[in-house]
Design brief:
The chain is mainly alpha-helical and 92 residues long. The chain has one domain. The chain has four helices and two strands, in the order ββαααα. It is globular. The two termini are 22 Å apart.
Length: 92
């Protein structure tokens, strides 16, 4: 979980997982793009709207625009260096 400026991990073993770390770094950048606090409001609102539509927690979570960007690019360890600011906006 990314809560600016920290990445919180369930287990110390995840510290060495570049995919998880990259996923969370993408969230940190998303938070910066929206000046941190609005990110959390939009994240929660998007989740709640998805939950009403899908009636399923997992589907609602996976369809949050911020998660879509993070999951789509978590394997590209150069994604953040390439720029791609506001990539989540394309997922709306």
């Amino acid at each position: 979980m990314a809560i600016f400026p920290f990445i919180l991990l369930k287990s110390p073993r995840f510290k060495n997982d570049p995919i998880i770390i990259n996923h969370e770094k993408i969230h940190l950048r998303q938070q910066l793009e929206l000046l941190i606090f609005p990110f959390y409001i939009l994240y929660l609102a998007n989740y709640l709207i998805n939950l009403i539509k899908c009636r399923n927690h997992d589907l609602a979570y996976r369809n949050i625009v911020f998660e879509k960007e993070a999951y789509e690019h978590e394997n590209d360890l150069k994604y953040l260096k390439k720029g791609n600011w506001y990539g989540w906006f394309k997922k709306i």
